[in-house]
Each structure stands twice: as structure tokens, then as C-alpha cells.
Write a structure and sequence with these properties.
The chain has two domains: 261 residues, Aldolase class I (TIM Barrel, Alpha-Beta Barrel), CATH 3.20.20; 74 residues, no CATH class. The chain is built from 14 helices and 15 strands. The strands form four sheets. It has an eight-stranded parallel beta sheet with strand order 3-13-12-10-9-8-7-4. Strands 11-15-14 form a three-stranded antiparallel beta sheet, with no helix packed on it. β5 and β6 form a beta hairpin. α1 runs parallel beside α3 and α3 runs parallel beside α4.
Length: 363
Amino acid sequence: MSYKSLKIGKYTIEKPIVQGGMGVGISWDKLAGNVSKEGGLGVISSVGTGYYQDKEYAGKLVSGKPQEALNFYSRDALFAIVKNARKICGDKPLAANVLYASNDYGRIVKDACEAGVNIIITGAGLPTNMPEFTEGFPDVALIPIVSSAKALKIICKRWKKRYDRVPDAVILEGPKSGGHQGFSYEQCKLPENQLENLVKPVVEEAALWGAIPVIAAGGVWDKNDIDEMMALGASGVQMGTRFIGTHECDAHDNFKEVLLNAKKEDIKLMASPVGYPAQGVVTNLTGLIERREGPAIKCISNCVGPCNRGVEAREVGFCIADRLSDAFQGNTETGLFFSGTNGYKLDKIISVKELMQKLTEGE
């Protein structure tokens, strides 16, 4: 099957493949810039930009960590990341992923628009007021992430009533994705919530609002999976974990090694301070958490609202900002390594160019 380009608002994505936004520091300038350069949609994660370091920008760190949401979601660093991604992809479409659960959500969206991204993607909550924060940027396309037709309907009704607009596309994420899920533990296992069974009803709901393109995500791994999603009515796919297995991915080499060494049974759902189940690799940290011997929880970054300034972190046994930053810095002892259920299939590191060829032309 050959693929049509993906139209999102005023932008045309040559190859209908969206690279998932992965924080802290997994999808920044190098990965996102190269995915866009090769014809997909590169997505910069806005999470933990305060850890970004380059010659022009030096993050404001306290004891090695960004203090408060203002520094954890650093405007200066986001601008530097976008600028450096543009050096790679030029004026090709470029997106930013901003978690709805983020403290300072509205400010981060505005920062991303002012930095020059073309598309904003938001999940980890139901972003019913997302258009408010892009006023003054009429060309910026908006993509919410949903896990059901019901969620899409709620968003479309609210947006139409309040802002007289609907999403430019929607990402439908099933429970095989890496990181946070839109389902409870029990719901993740139900047949009706598997991606292949969700696509059709979401495509049908999207059609009622003007044929909104549906981008299928969660467990999509190769061209066969993409063909299956397209046959079900999706206009494109989003893939995160597969892109970690590229030379250009901003992740530490140790992060890539964790996935290369992971077995199928090592990838599991776990509790998270964000309030949703999260999918990742069982590592040394997992045992520490289970025994309540994990690193101290101090909530320096104040990253997400649902954590309630460390209350939920203490409940589940770890600070998500600190443990994701450990993974970004290559600390395999205390790092949190998110992965989709298919992450164990990674067997070698290749270039983004080669991966895009495999995904569109076959292995």
C-alpha cells in the first residue's frame, strides 16, 4: 500500500507518520528535526526543557534540577530547541507536544507558538480549552489526543460552541503506547479498548465534524501495522518508541540500550504521579519503588498538576520529573524508561532516514 500525504490544517505532511512526543529529552531538536526533514511530522516534547543544554542556552538548574514549572518548562530552552530543529528541517511542518496535565499549560502552548512551531499536540487530559492559548496564531494547527469516540465528541462540542472551530486532526491512542494511558489498568486490557477496535468509531465521529483526520497510535510498529490502520480508516499513524531506536534520537545511549536489552515481559504498566497508568520497562527503579527504597521525593520542579506538589509522587513512590531526567542522563539505576508494548522488538539502532524508508516501503 502506498500512502497519501496527511493534511493537518494548512500543513501537508508528505509521509503520514507522526513521531510521538517523548519527554524528558527523548524527542527534542535532533529527532524531531530529522523526522520532519525526512517527510514525517517531527514532534518536540515540551516536557523538561529546562534540562536542555547547548552553547547558546544554559538552563537554570538548582542542585542539578530545574526549579519550579517556570524553569522545568523553560521558554528559553524551548526556543533554542525549535531553532536547532529548524536548522535541520528548514520550513517543513514541525510540532510540539504539550501535556494538558502540565503546570503552566497555557503558557507553554503560547511559548511553543511564539517559538515557531506549526502544530500543537496535547494529551494527558481532555484539552477542552486548548484553542484559548493559540489566539493570535491562526495558522497553528491543533491536535488533541483521545482514547475514545466519546472523548472526541466532547472536545468537538466544546470547541465548536466556545471557539467556533474543531480540531485540525485527532490522535487516537490505544493502550499499547509508551508512557501515560487514557485508560485505567482494567480498561487497558478490554478488547473494545484495543486500537484496532477503536479506529472505526472514532473515524465515524470525526466524519460528523467535517472529516477530521484520525491518526492512530499505540503499538504501531511497522508497515504492516500502518497498512492495517489505514485500511480501518485512519489518515496517518503516530509512533514513539520505534523512533528511540534511531541514531538521531535525543535519548542517552543507555536509554537505547535498555530497550535493546528488554524482553517482552519486561514492559509493563505501572502507577504514576500523573494519575494515569504508565507503560515502561521494568528496571532497577521498579524494585526500589516496590520496596519503598527509591530516591527521596522533594518536588523541586512542580511539573504536573495532578501530582499535587509531590503528594501523589509519595503515594506511588517516585517523582516522575526526577526519574525521567535520570533516564535522559543515562542513569540506569534510578531512571524511568517509558516504552510501548513493542519496545522489546528493537534490535538495532538505525538512522531516521532508513526507518522512514522501512515504514513506507517495507522491511
